[in-house]
Amino acid sequence: MEHYFTNNENIKSNLRSIDYTVKNTSFVFYTDNGVFSKFNVDYGTNLLINTYLDNCKKTEEVLDVGCGYGVIGIVISKINGQKVEQIDINKRALHLTEMNNKENKTNNKVYESNIYENITSIYDVIITNPPIRAGKKVYMTILKEAHKHLKPDGELWFVARKDQGAKTIEKELREKYNINLIKKQRGYYIYKADFALTN
Fold this sequence. Notes:
globular; two-stranded antiparallel ribbon; Rossmann fold; seven-stranded mixed beta sheet
């Protein structure tokens, strides 16, 4: 199951499209083998998107980390009009994200980055459904290092599952962030973390 956060060129392509609606806005997303949640938008991502849209500040610059085929960044760009950059290490995912930006008429900047390796800007918001199957080191690096790429009043939004250690993750992140549980539903926790303890 590691293939969706790595580049495995041996995975045979099987392009398909899925429909997705949020806040009365319809989207079409192309997906493929070798990317996360290829048959539908997964529950955690859907909950993160809806919770973010219901509670976010209308900020300008957003970074979508581990974008997969682009759902989070494309939806918030389309609905909120936010300027979004989308990054992933998976080249197939990035290609799909570019296709999906075109399909949904969004103009997000899409590029390859191993976590924050190629990031040079700072953002108002970093949003992510981090890949738990990548292992704890990758997962926690995405969350713990986010503050280095946020503006002083910036926010980190992410989803974690109760049965995959959400409470432990929350406890660890309190060393760096003021962290708030915004929504809890069906074992999924949506968190917003801000800069209060990092400067």
